[in-house]
Amino acid sequence: MDGNTAQGEKSALDAREDKVRSVMAGLKHLAMIRRQCETAVRKLPAGSAERKRMRAYIFDIDSTVQMASGVVDRLEGSDPGFGSVFRMAYIDNLTNDAIANMLGISKRTVIRRRNRIVSAIAADDELYTLFTGGESNG
What is the pLDDT of residues 18-38, one digit of tens each? Predict the structure, then answer.
């Protein structure tokens, strides 16, 4: 393999990792919106149209998060820490320090696992397509 081919493949993988990170940032945002919707639902009258609309938003968010979690669960076999770190970081919106304290690992280990999750998804055509909703060719 020549230098240009290797550089092109690295560039394509970098672009895929950027896309995965973008989707993960979107998941963090969705998790925050979900919590806001839950709070709003509790304050709305039972049976109101607005309450039904908020419940529909929550359902849509849960479906998206469940799909993403399913992709990470498939990676769990190769690294048992992936699922818990993913959920805590992107669903629960916990900091790296909080995740490290809860799991009894170092902050650096949390960061490495987060980076490996991104790399593993980006490197696998099927998982990348499932996770990003895009085509596998980058």
Answer: 999 999 999 889 988 998 999
